[in-house]
Prior knowledge:
By secondary structure, the chain is mainly beta.
Amino acid sequence: MRRVLNLWAAVLVVLCVSATAEGTVLAATRAETTIVSYEALVESGSRRTFYDEPFRLIARVSSDREISRVEARLYAEGASDPALSLTDFTRTSASDGTSVWRSDRYVDPPVAKYRVEISAVDADGTRTDRVMERPLHKRLKINLVEVTTDRSHADVEHPDVTVTGRLVHIDGEGTRQPVSEARVNTGNADGSTAVTNPDGRFNLRTRIAPENPSLYLWTSPGAPYGEAYHTVNAGYRLVSTRLFAEVSGSGVIGEKLLVRGRLRRWTGNGVGTGIAGMTVVLQFWEASGRAGVAHPVKTDADGDFEFSTITTGVGEWRAYFNNHGAAPEAPGYERGFARASTPAAHRTAVSGMTFAAQPTAAGDRLTVKAQIRRLKADATWSPVSAGPMSLLFSPDGKRWGVEANGLTGPQGFVSISARVPRDGFWRLDYDPEFGNDFSARSAVRYVNVKHRTSITGFDASPEPVKKGRMFAVQGQLKQYFSGTWKPLSGATVHVYFKANGTSKWTRMAAVKTGRYGGFHKPLKASRDGAWLVTYQGDSSCLGVRSASDYVDVR
């Protein structure tokens, strides 16, 4: 009997221990996992409230346990089976118990409103599911196409433009389909809008503001369509003007002088039409730099003006349009300025111009020397000291730009240096803003320079290579143009080989560079040696030689 009681006591102890152990497991802290949020990301990187292009999902999961897997399912509205399941999530970051998971592929489900369900599985296999409150809307992608304006730009005389275009979406066969009855908005202050016709086309008239010449079109037809945006740089320009002025008279102080000129609306093709009723201010500037009285005059029906006065001294008459305080502004028109020297001013000349250190490559420095002289009343020439000089360059002899400036010395000599950008014409200008000298311009000199070239990335590979097998030399040919290195296409590059133990380079092949300056020439390996390529140059580019690359032939 005692042995039976002892056995029962042992069983009770075991049961108590087991119960205690089970109770510990049940009392253990349960892992907490929460699907915090999700969002969809399109390929362009933007996040939206609806999606009209392929996207991938990003889920944020908070858990005190390691999350091993995240999945997502998209259910079309009213459907019990998922239209799309995503199981290819990768963790992209983790911090303070929250991890971010992103699906590896972009998906493009059919147009619908989707319920999103996300699941997270921890390292122990515990699964947490959540149906997200925010649905995902997939809509048809629409585009504003064939957008044009009836004018290349607007101006103060023609502020309105007509914008036409078409609103379409692409069907499953890749064909454009019209979107009708959609309102296209401009976003302009005048509130211009238009509604698309059955073919998706629209036509609207709007006014371009000078402070905002870009025309912003947008439309949001609503489901099942997305939104479309389009920016048209309609352009707003000031009316281009040209102001001309001239003087006639003996140039003798105290005698009559007639100042006349023209204000033209310039069309850009060398033809102008007169601008009537505008105020032009005429003002005489003495050689000492002192300005005379301003005389406002009105242009006539043909845009012409004239003013009769008396010659008061050596200097010049200046004409101002839209940039002088003596006359009201003319909004929407370019400023105009013209000057006309009186015959009483001194004649000057640029003489003895020489080119020192003439360059051979673009980017080298060119030094131009000359002397500026003034013709005096006794018909003798005297040097012009402290005279402002400009060294100008033109690629075609027509369009000129200042490259450097300088002042003449006590004897009228000047030396100005500038870097040479390319082949072209050079000249020196003497153009004093004040004083009693006429402007002077040197003879034009043409300088023929060449662009530097460079061979980059040259390589002979693979290396080592077995005898008789093919390998290739490749690289890129560039030219230094307008301050930067650019590919040189269509040029012939010569391939040279120097056998191991010799000093002679032998031409082996020639290859033309491609569109981006690259070249690639397959060759058959015959013996050890070094390879290089050369470009011999042409009328505009200097030649260049690459570094050599040794190929071990086995």
